[in-house]
Design goal:
The chain is globular and about 60 Å long. Helices cover 78% and strands 0% of the residues. It is mostly helical. 53% of the residues are buried. The chain folds into three domains: 191 residues, MFS general substrate transporter like domains (Growth Hormone, Chain: A, Up-down Bundle); 56 residues; 202 residues, MFS general substrate transporter like domains (Growth Hormone, Chain: A, Up-down Bundle), CATH 1.20.1250. Helix 1 packs antiparallel against helix 10 and helix 14 packs parallel to helix 18. It is built from 20 helices and no strands.
Length: 456
């Protein structure tokens, strides 16, 4: 088997999924107007995808043993493409949300399977260079997403932000059958799947997300809210108890005995609550309040992505030499500052302030991702790296979905039944971005516990 062609289909698959994560946000105001729904309803276009991603994630390791890496990869791409096509043809918001769940069932496995395939082909002495090339797909996707989404939405319409996945997916499938067949084609016998533990986990995650999303409609102190959170806590407790007793747990909880891993996961979760929530609000700020078009919104979001892509390798090298603590704290401060600037923008604000906020946001993100992810992986034993990576992705997606729900609920609570009033819209966006800034600063506490740890 030739090694060189292996990386291209794996890059394309992860690029497609990463692009989809960022391309949708710019189109949300247009979707909201077309479907004539509230902001806390349209947020489910993003939240449903992230929630389904979280629920599917624990299945990946078991499925790899069950059907093999190659089969899981091509099935994941096929399911993702099917969900993309269904999303583009969605006649209603309910149909679109269901189609996004289908997308997530395919997209959730792409990154961990691609990492496992690369690790099985390239030895330790080559992985750093190969991961760098593969990682370009993960970075370039989000970098291009907002701008590409703005262009497509303005000139073709929002359905095409989903149809754009089709050519990438088809090429990835063709190249996969040409170059990946020999990787993980034969799989060992899987262990017994912990269905009960997985069920506990799924119910806890869905109840938690549903309870947060319904706060605006039912009230924080309503019996329904208390009941939903009680269900989430009860099933989480059952999940923890089950996973500490079973031989083949769905998620290995022993990783939480490592302080650096715990600190990294806390930073990831808190950061994601603020970042994904803020990213959700940005198109509404730029389009609904400041009056920019979809294309202009995409262009204004581009500086953050460019700075992020440029700083990620430098931040990773700095973290290797000096440890992740200081650069992580610097990243958190920059993002909090960017969020504070965004909070006070209104229709009369100059474009310079928008670009300055985007540059600061991109720099902060560039300082955060590589050091925190490296700290999470380096803080555990070598045999636990794959599980640590799954936890990292899980908490990032779960934190993001919770953050979007919280900020959407806050926004809707302030705007209420008068979404056309600019003063209420400005107050809602201001509150949301200031809340994001506060949450980001809260993450400095666990970031202070990060240290250069290299168990691997």
């Amino acid at each position: 088997m030739k090694r060189a062609p292996v990386i291209l289909p794996l890059m394309l698959g992860t690029f497609m999924a990463a692009l989809d994560n960022s391309i949708v946000n710019v189109s949300l105001p247009v979707m909201q107007q077309q479907f004539r729904v509230r902001i806390d309803d349209i947020q489910w276009v993003i939240t449903a995808y992230m929630l389904a991603f979280c629920v599917f994630m624990p299945l990946t390791n078991w499925l790899k043993s069950r059907i093999g890496l190659f089969n899981l990869y091509v099935i994941s791409i096929s399911v993702f493409l099917a969900g993309s096509i269904l999303s583009g043809f969605a006649p209603s918001l309910t149909f679109l949300i269901a189609a996004r769940i289908v997308q997530a069932l395919g997209g959730g496995a792409l990154t961990p399977v691609a990492l496992a395939m690369l690790s099985s082909v390239y030895g330790p002495e080559q992985r750093g260079r190969i991961m760098g090339w593969w990682g370009m797909g993960v970075v370039v996707g989000p970098a291009l997403g907002p701008t590409l989404g703005g262009v497509i939405t303005q000139y073709l319409g929002w359905p095409y932000i989903f149809f754009v996945n089709v050519p990438f997916g088809l090429i990835a499938l063709v190249l996969s059958f040409a170059h990946l067949k020999e990787i993980g084609r034969r799989s060992g016998l899987p262990g017994r799947f912990d269905l009960l533990g997985y069920s506990y986990f799924t119910i806890a995650v869905i109840a938690l997300q549903y309870g947060i999303a319904r706060i605006e409609k039912t009230g924080l102190h309503s019996p329904q809210t208390y009941g939903t959170f009680a269900v989430a806590i009860a099933f989480l407790a059952l999940f923890v108890r089950k996973e500490t007793q079973v031989r083949g747990p769905v998620l290995d909880l022993s990783l939480f005995k490592y302080p650096v891993f715990v600190a990294g996961i806390l930073v990831t979760a808190i950061r994601s609550v603020a970042l994904f929530g803020g990213l959700f609000l940005l198109p509404f700020l730029l389009q609904n309040l400041m009056g920019y078009s979809e294309l202009q919104t995409g262009l204004l979001l581009l500086p953050a992505s460019v700075v992020l892509a440029g700083l990620m390798p430098l931040a990773g090298s700095w973290s290797d030499r000096h440890g992740p603590r200081n650069i992580t704290i610097a990243g958190l401060v920059l993002i909090a500052l960017a969020s504070a600037i965004l909070a006070f923008l209104d229709r009369g604000s100059g474009v310079f302030l928008v670009i300055a906020a985007m540059v600061l946001r991109g720099a902060g993100l560039g300082f955060l991702f590589s050091p925190v992810s490296a700290a999470v992986l380096n803080g555990v034993q070598p045999r636990q790296v794959t599980t640590a990576s799954s936890y990292y992705s899980l908490f990032m997606q779960l934190g993001g979905s919770i953050g979007i729900s919280i900020l959407a609920a806050v926004h809707q609570h302030i705007v209420g039944a008068q979404p056309g009033r600019p003063d209420l819209l400005h107050r809602a966006l201001e509150t949301g971005f200031l809340l994001s800034a506060g949450l980001i600063l809260l993450a400095i506490w666990p970031a202070g516990s990060l240290a250069l740890s290299n168990r691997t």
